[in-house]
């Protein structure tokens, strides 16, 4: 996995007015290099970014940086990366998280159109209402061939096709907690190498009972976050409606 370093925030406009006083002062007189990494870092913590660099960004940008790095995270894990001031007001923070992430099994997942940027259409929006959902699977298939080379994977798969495949995989993982790889491949025009690379970041193979062989199913990468679901029922219900509305008319292959 590519490391997130200080250079990754070069080019970002740093606005000191987004900083609490203590962090604004740390920018004026930065600590020595041996103490600039995030204080909460552990061996299991994937971020490698100075606190001053992270906190200098707007809260939305902080969350986007985190989600781009980890891909999938529990709500409590995102909070660990943020400064204490940003953790206050849970409802407002959730709204910020939804700019960069979507909810699956009570966990946050980086939005597909951030991972696979396209020239025009995208497939994810904050689910304020069912009509906020975007284009259908058929639209993606028809337009995928017109995608420019800048919006393809290294293997040549159009990003629009990748977005569609990933969104459908997230829908299955959200609604039933698992999916079957062979059926997903039948439903989406994505070759095996790109499919496995995409799926491996959001799911894991389920082993058959009694042996170490794959059952043919893939389950969501993280365990279901029942605590978040219980504490934020309205948010969870909105996403359940969003996923259902987005894919309820999906046509199975003939």
TrEMBL record:
Signal peptide region: none
UniProt KW keywords: DNA-directed RNA polymerase, Transcription
GO biological process, one term: tRNA transcription by RNA polymerase III
Pfam families linked: RPC5
One GO location term (cellular component): RNA polymerase III complex
Biased composition (Low complexity): 126-147
Residue segments, region Disordered: 126-158
UniProt KW Transcription keyword: yes
PANTHER family: DNA-DIRECTED RNA POLYMERASE III SUBUNIT RPC5 (PTHR12069:SF0), DNA-DIRECTED RNA POLYMERASES III 80 KDA POLYPEPTIDE RNA POLYMERASE III SUBUNIT 5 (PTHR12069)
The protein's name in its UniProt record: DNA-directed RNA polymerase III subunit RPC5
Annotated gene: LOC108664693
């Amino acid at each position: 996995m590519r490391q997130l370093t200080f250079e990754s925030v070069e080019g970002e406009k740093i606005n000191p007015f987004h900083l609490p006083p203590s962090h604004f002062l740390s920018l004026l007189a930065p600590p020595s290099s041996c103490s600039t990494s995030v204080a909460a870092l552990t061996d299991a913590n994937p971020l490698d970014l100075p606190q001053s660099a992270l906190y200098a960004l707007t809260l939305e940008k902080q969350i986007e940086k985190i989600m781009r790095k980890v891909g999938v995270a529990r709500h409590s894990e995102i909070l660990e990366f943020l400064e204490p001031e940003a953790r206050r007001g849970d409802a407002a923070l959730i709204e910020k998280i939804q700019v960069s992430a979507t909810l699956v099994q009570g966990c946050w997942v980086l939005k597909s159109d951030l991972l696979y940027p396209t020239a025009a259409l995208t497939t994810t929006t904050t689910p304020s209402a069912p009509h906020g959902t975007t284009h259908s699977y058929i639209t993606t298939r028809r337009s995928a061939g017109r995608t420019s080379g800048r919006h393809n994977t290294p293997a040549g798969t159009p990003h629009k096709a990748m977005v569609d495949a990933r969104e459908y995989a997230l829908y299955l993982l959200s609604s039933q907690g698992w999916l079957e790889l062979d059926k997903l491949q039948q439903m989406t025009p994505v070759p095996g190498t790109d499919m496995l690379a995409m799926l491996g970041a959001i799911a894991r193979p389920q082993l058959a009972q009694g042996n170490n062989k794959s059952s043919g199913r893939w389950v969501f990468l993280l365990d279901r976050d029942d605590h978040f679901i219980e504490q934020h029922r309205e948010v969870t219900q909105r996403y359940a409606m969003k996923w259902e509305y987005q894919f309820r008319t999906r046509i199975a292959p003939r």
